[in-house]
Every structure is written in structure tokens, then in C-alpha cells.
Amino acid sequence: MRPEKRRSRNIPAKSKETEILWSDIAGRILINAISYPVEYAKVLIQIGHEPIPPKPTVTLFGKPALKLPNAFTYIKHIKSVDGFIGCYRGLVPKVCSYTVSTIACDKTLEYLQPNGAAEQNEDEDDEDESVRRKKCINEIVMDVISRTVAIVVSHPLEVISLRMMAQFVGGETKYSSLFGSFLEIYRENGILGYYAGLIPRVIGNAAVIVLTGISTYAINNYVLQEPAMKPYTASTMKFVATTVTYPFLVVSHCMAVNDCGLVAGLPPHMPIYKNWLHCWSHLSAHNQLKRGSSLLWRYYTGPQMLLNGKLIPIMGDHFYQPSS
Q1: pTM to 2 decimal places
Q2: Is the peptide bond before 271 cis (omega within 30 degrees of 0)?
Q3: Which residue intervals correspond to the Solcar repeats (predicted)?
Q4: Residue 125: which residues within 8 A CB-CB, separation 6 or more?
Q5: pLDDT for position 8
Q6: Concatenated DSSP letters for 134-163?
């Protein structure tokens, strides 16, 4: 029994870290695969595709509104058009994107972290205020850098996945294989096509990290007195920060498919944007920056009119094109 224990103690720390990394990647891939149809429906909503007409309803406050189908009804529609396999269109590049992103982020953090950083974290409560503040800032900076590197490296795969999903709108098959999609993007948009929508994605992710880090530090050090509650602060603040920065994700996804040769990225479904700021201002003017943020209770917020006491969506709008 003793030799076995010695062998387990002699396992290099790096090999253990590698095992943990790959087990984490495998677990996340499984979760992403199971929940992918929901993600698929959400992306189609984000780029403005609403194939099912809204129905008149009232809000909780009794105000007339137009109710759009929830994500699960949307998934049923996708399945009725493309079948069960069709609900997983774009999954392969999405999984590849997540894997590349995770490895790049982990390796960048490993390179940036000073030696012995893990051992220093044990006596955080006894450290001076200025030391804790400096450590918090350093962690935020390292997280932003590592996450940005991960996004830049994996973004071409993300663009391929988004365009594969966007093909549902026009029933195209231009983006069918991984290698073929790389060539198709180059033919349509050149090198810059691989990084369509990159800037708002990077800004949104960096904002989440900064907001989460600063708010978590402030709350844990100046607000919360109960140690048992402090571990939950980071996850709560990340949820809040993700909600606040959600419009960056919508703009990024729209720019990834805009003017790429697909029906989803061309008029009348979507205007051709000059840049991501033009996209932001246009979506903001039409109250569309938060579309897809709610998957269960969705309301049509585009142009509408009151006719015989009922709300009716105005046809011909860029954001609502009912299926024929």
C-alpha cells in the first residue's frame, strides 16, 4: 500500500493541473452540447429573426403588449424545419472555439502569474489594505489580458459557428464544414472577416471582468461582515455585470453575420452597418439592444400600432419579418 501512496504523491503538479483543465473542458463541452439548442435559438433572436408572429396579450400590470414565442417554442420551430440534427447546427466550431479559448486563457494566466502566487493567497485576511488592493488590481489586469488573448485566438471559430446558425434564416448551406467555412469567410470578407464583431466582444468581456472584480472587492471589504457570505459575492456580481454589458454581445453577434453573403446579414432582415458603433446606435434607436436577454417572457418592442383596441406590429420592419 505504501508504494502506491508514494506514487500518488510524486505526480507532478503540472500533470494534475492538466488533468483538471481537460476534465473541466470535457464537463463544459457536455453541458454546452446539452443546452446548445437554447443557445441556437438565442442567437437567432439576437440577430433579429422572428419567424413566429407575436400574439396580443397583457403584461403583469395589465398593459396591452405583443407576446413573442419563448425559446422552447422557437426550438420546436427549428426542429420542424431542420429536424432534430438541425438544432445542433454550428455545434462543432462552437466546441472547438470553447476548447481553444479555455486553453489559451489558462496558458496566458500561467505565463502572467508570478511564482508562488498560490501560496500567498492563504493569509489574505492578515494583509494590509494597500496590499489587498494592489493584488485585486493585478488579478483584474491578468484576467482581462488572458481573456482577451483567448477571445482573439478563438474568435474565427466563433464567427463560423454564428454564421452556420444564421444560415437558418435563409436556408443556405454556404457554411457547412469547418475548413470550407474558413475559405468562405475569406472569399466574402477577407482576413478581417475572421474577426467580425471582435471589438464589442472584447469590450464586453473586459467590462464584465473589471466590474465584477471591483464590485466584489468593495463589497467583501467594506460592506459584508459575515465571512460565510463572501464566497457568493463574485458569482452574484458577475451575473449583474453580464446583464449590464449584454448589449455588447448582441452587437458582436450582429456584426459577425452582417454583410457576409447570408440572408440574415443583409437587408431587409438587417441593414449593412459601417462599423459596430453604427450597429449599436441603430439597435438602440429601435430598442433592440436587449433582445434575447429573456428567453421565457418575450415581448415585441418594434414599431407597432393600435387598431380597434389591439396592438399590431408594423410589417416591413428590419427586426420583424413574419414567415410566409
Answers
A1: 0.84
A2: no
A3: 134-222
A4: none
A5: 43
A6: HHHHHHHHHHHHHHHHHHHHHHHHHHHHHH
CATH number of the domain bearing residue 180: 1.50.40.10
Q: What is residue 132's predicted lDDT score, i.e. its pLDDT?
A: 85
Q: What are 292-310's pLDDT values in tens digits? A: 888 888 887 765 544 444 5
Residue 9 lies in a domain: no
Residue type, 88: Y
Beta strands in 5-116 (DSSP E): 55-58, 64-68
Which residues, 6+ apart, have CB-to-CB distance to 274 below 8 Å?
Answer: none
Q: Is residue 16 part of a domain?
A: no
State the residue range of the domain holding 173: 46-112+130-303
Specify if 51 maps to a domain.
Answer: yes
Give the model's pLDDT for residue 25: 77
User: Are 211 and 242 contacting, i.e. CB atoms less than 8 angstroms apart?
Assistant: no
- Taking CA atoms, 13 is separated from 8, 123, 272, in Å, by 11, 22, 51
Q: What residue type is 303 in one-letter code?
A: P
Q: How many domains does the chain have?
A: 1
Q: Name the region of 292 (left: φ>0; alpha: ψ -120 to 50; beta: rest).
A: left
- Looking at the domain assignment, is residue 292 inside a domain? yes
Phi, psi of 94 (to 5 degrees): -65, -45
The CB-based long-range contact list for 140-143 (8 Å cut-off, 24+ gap) reads 140/209, 140/210, 140/213, 140/214, 142/109, 142/112, 142/113, 143/109, 143/209, 143/213
- Cα 206 from Cα 193, distance rounded (Å): 22
At 140-195, the pLDDT tens digits run: 999 999 999 999 999 999 999 999 999 999 999 999 899 999 999 999 999 999 99
